Amino acid sequence: MRESIRYRRTSFEDVSQIEEMEEAYFSEEAFGRRQIRYLLQSPNAIALTAEEGGRFGRAHGRSPAASNGKVLGYIIGLGRRGSSAVRIYTFCVRRDYRLKGIGTSLLQRLERECQRRGVSSLILEVGEGNSSAQRFYKRNGFMEFYRTPGYYSDGTTAVRMRKAITVDSSQ
User: Fold this and answer.
1) Of 1, 21, 95, 146, whose CB count within 10 A is highest?
2) Helix and strand totals (H; E) in the chain
């Protein structure tokens, strides 16, 4: 029987699993525990998690956002006060769960939350050699707008991408 996937706000209980994924997938560019906690505590952060086998844990004294399962993926974006853009700082799906719609769902959920908050664009950086990530972002409406040579610690150029999103005018 296949486990269900639950999408929810990221909690501080997820930090250890996120840190492990950061180290596994981003090596030198990985966010550490302190950086992850800093992002999560910002009032301008939008942090979402996909977890396997998750269930709401109220019966166990946990909030609905509490982690109960294996983190399969996460996305953390941060807007600056007064800015109409949210920058995606980190976004990852476990390799064995890729191409199953988890990344697309996390990105769409982030976009809906941005619309609700009146944000008009998403911005991110991706290594120029990471063609699969670039294709993913382009399929999801992002366009390259700038390149920053030497952006990453190994000297790799960053491809900056942006997606314009429609602001929810019903708010």
Assistant:
1) 21
2) 4, 7
